[in-house]
Amino acid sequence: MNESSNTPKPQARYALYFAPEQNSPWWQAGCRWLGRDPASATALPQTTCEGVTATAFHQLTSDARRYCFHATLKAPFRLAEGCTAALLDTALRDFCQQQRSLMIPAPRVEWMGNFLALRPQGDVSAINRLAMDCVSTFDSFRAPLSAADIARRQRHPLSDRQMQLLQRWGYPYTEEEFRFHMTLTDALHESAHADQAEAICQAAQNFFTIDAPLQLNGLALFTESAPGAPFQLVQRYAFGAANDSTTAALNEMKSQS
User: Fold this and answer.
1) Which residue of 33, 62, 125, 215 is most buried, as measured by CB atoms within 10 A?
2) Residue 55: CB partners within 8 Å, gap ≥ 6?
3) Which option is the CATH number for 12-256: 1.20.1270.10, 3.90.1140.10, 3.40.50.2000, 3.50.50.60?
4) Does residue 35 contact residue 99 with C-beta atoms inside 8 Å?
């Protein structure tokens, strides 16, 4: 990270996400679906959805677009007192050097409550462990939630267990409540949007029929510069084991030539 990014604004929040690599067809598709590239901070022509106007589709993906195409591993947090972006950067490099690349099995568009998301199928135990490692390892960087933060979370009903997790980790969907997903829409099953929900679901299923593996090869650090600002991709951190395996493959190719 550059020097200016190491001096966080008081209201800035940081998040640890999975975001597909820049040249991945999944990343390109996700950015086009939402109409925004958080790496370059540019708007993109959003894909069309038959039966839904461009204006309505843009509105029904507005929150998802602000957060961008990603899967949350460590939810957005403000830096704790005494922590800096430079220290977070160092910790991320050390953490990622010890991780191994994971395959996200058979990603598919599904409903998660009242919104659409890209979800893995099959065994996700390794992904769940990685997510929990991110939550616990970087929790010392997280400032305690404010009363406003807690009130905002409580606008949506939480179970007793989710409240416990919110108080422990600053986010209610950790530990056994965690579900790896990449959000594609805002809430769609409200009465005003019920007639558009299935059209958008069908469009998403068609759009994300991608014949390419989805690899979790590293973490991405995102920031929200001020409340309500769009999240931006600051830095990608490749997993060390992924780098090691690439190097080994290149060395093998050289030895055979």
Assistant:
1) 33
2) none
3) 3.90.1140.10
4) no
